[in-house]
Amino acid sequence: MTKIGFVSSEKPDALKSLKVMKKNYNFVSPKNADVIVALGGDGTMLKSLHNFLHLNKPIYGMNRGHIGFLMNQYSEKNLEKRLQQAISYKLAPLKIKCFNQDSYVTESLAFNDVSLIRNSSKIAKIKIEVNNKTRIDEFLGDGCLISTPAGSSAYNLSLRGPVIPVGAKVLALTPISPYRPRRWRGALLNNDAKITLYALDSELRPVRAEADFMQFQNINKLEIELEKKLHVNLLFDPGHDLEERIINEQFNN
To answer: Catalytic site residues?
Structure first.
């Protein structure tokens, strides 16, 4: 029998489902599991990707939240069969370095996206550098977002950024409410690219960094690149896989 490590969000529906699943299946701790099953929404999945990255176990989500883009449909039946038939997608995170105004460096990972965004009523001023070359001397707006293919249908999509097929080896760099240069729509970059965002006049125009569900305050510089040495295998039911969902997002009104 497949050894399953169940985790869930703290919402009542998810906790109720967790109780049922543990009763019906051979459950163990995530550390000792063959596969980890996350019950909740996309937030639960993102936390699971971070919490269990070091275990190198496949993760299968079941939607007990709202949108559930990274989740499969919830059902209490035939879970072991679904796990055996599931399609695996390899997700690598973004590696980020945040430099704050005191020259303190914080390192973290993000599976969906990372942004540098204004943290006051004043417009942000950002210098954009790609592969150690300045591409925009002074961007004026609310901020900039860097998204992976898996995260391109989340915040990036709401900014009218491109939805990226999951197998594409690119990252999306998308402006957030751009003022200058007004016609700049962003860029698609090879996933080998190193992106550096500098906060200009950061004392007068403070900015923060956001990475998945984390925030970092008073940022002067943000470095982003794909961490190809780390990955998680995310599992999807056939016919409801991540590739199909990303295609559908591009045709839904």
So the answer is: 42
